[in-house]
Amino acid sequence: MSSKNKLRIAVLASGGGTNLQSIIDQCQQGTLDAEIDLVICNNPDAGALDRAKKAGIRTVCINHRDFSQRKDFDQAVVTTLQEAGVELIVLAGFMRIISSVFLAAFPQRIINIHPALLPSFPGLHVQQKAIDYGAKFSGCTVHFVDDGVDTGAIIAQAVVPIHNDDTEETLSSRILEQEHKIYPQVIQWFAENRIVSDGRQVTIKSAQQSGNTLTNPLAE
Ligand code: GAR
Fold first, then answer.
1. How confident is the model at residue 5 (pLDDT cuts 50, 70, 90)?
2. Does residue 1 register a pLDDT over 80?
3. Same domain, yes or no, for 196 and 115?
4. Could you read off the pLDDT of 52-70 as tens digits, one per residue?
5. Ligand 1 centroid to 182 CA: how many Å?
6. Which of 15, 20, 141, 201 is deepest in the core (most CB within 10 A)?
7. For a pocket test of ligand 1, which of 114, 140, 150 has the largest count of ligand atoms closer than 8 A to its C-beta?
8. Are strands 34-41 and 58-61 parallel, antiparallel or unpaired?
């Protein structure tokens, strides 16, 4: 695909930015037909800013603490995104709730990754919550963003087992490994125009369905 036809995306992040890095890497390797036009962070200390700068990507820091109202912060983000002319907004560890101002500006064009198998464990600290609950599997979910907390239509999920000796850190890193695979894959499906969305039902044209079933602990 020529650079002209690449999907133009913005990545919004608040933290370390390993998901951002996986998207940068795949864009650079040519396995993802997208270009990151800008990275927006709400946190001036976000590692994601350094990763973007290192890759020569334009960065904008819009500190939510500079705004007394959520909608004013969101409007500043929306204006920046509209000026950049991006086609898809990729939330990658962006720890702010999106208001209606933001959603209305980009209908069906904002996606998020969440480190649990939604609809189980929405919200924060979900790896620890899955362990505490005694769940045997967790994973990650890529979904459209709607006006709820982690309630938007699901695009793709990956499953990982929870081990008896898992800590929040070990489970998070097992889940992150899968996040780094499925998020670039979903963006590529957008780039290929293969995502068909009908309310909560999201399908990917010509994608193979998983034939695997999983049991944990393993059946003997
Ligand atoms: C990821 O695990 C992502 O799923 C999660 O934050 C982490 C960001 O890591 N997002 C959420 O919890 C959103 N509610 P990263 O900065 O290394 O990409």
1. confident
2. no
3. yes
4. 999 999 999 999 999 999 9
5. 13
6. 20
7. 114
8. parallel
Ramachandran area for residue 134 (φ above 0: left; ψ -120 to 50: alpha; else beta) = left
- Domain of residue 83 covers 1-107
Q: Tell me, what CATH number does 23's domain have?
A: 3.40.50.170
Indicate whether 19 belongs to any domain: yes
Cα pseudo-dihedral 15, 17, 20, 24, rounded to 10: 140
Task: List the structure tokens of 107.
Answer: 């209908």
Protein residues with CB under 6 Å of any ligand 1 atom = 13, 15-19, 92-93, 113-115, 176, 179
Total number of domains in the chain: 2
The answer to whether residue 114 is catalytic is yes
Q: Which two tokens stand for residue 26?
A: 């795949």
pLDDT tens digit sequence for 174-206: 999 999 999 999 999 999 999 999 999 999 999
Q: Are 153 and 197 spatial neighbours (Cβ–Cβ below 8 Å)?
A: yes
**pTM (2 decimals)?**
0.97
Question: Atom 5 in ligand 1: which residue has the minimum CA distance?
Answer: 93
Which amino acid is located at 61 in the chain? C
* Residue 3 banded pLDDT, cuts 50, 70, 90: low
